[in-house]
Amino acid sequence: MLSGLNHLTLAVVDLQRSLHFYHELLRLQLEATWDNGAYLSLPGLWLCLSLDPLRDPVPVVDYTHYAFSTHARDFDALVERLRGAGVQEWRDNLSEGASYYFLDPDGYKLEVHVGDLASRLQACRDKPYSGMRFYP
């Protein structure tokens, strides 16, 4: 039986650039580095950056992305910091709660979101998606 998400590993082409992005800009806790990688963390998340110079930089055109939580009081400052650093946006927010969708230096699709599963489910109960069902 699965008990949770263990870790997320992202292949990166420039480790120092990615370390700067995740540690300095997004402010994840730096836990360890080595020649070809790094471990960073947030409460409940272990992120591994793994150097892979052969990573295909062609952006994926689907909705797959990784979302980080933030508090409402921190949202505007975080978005301004990202915009000030010239981070590219990839989508407008179309759902409940404040969200900002952006790309990391390797083109991974990321989001910062104010809210959680409970707030999303409540918004969906108030205005359900087509064909939506809820389970106990």
UniProtKB/TrEMBL annotation:
Pfam families: Glyoxalase. GO terms for molecular function: metal ion binding; transferase activity. Residues 4-115 form the VOC domain. Keywords: Metal-binding, Transferase. This is Catechol 2,3-dioxygenase.
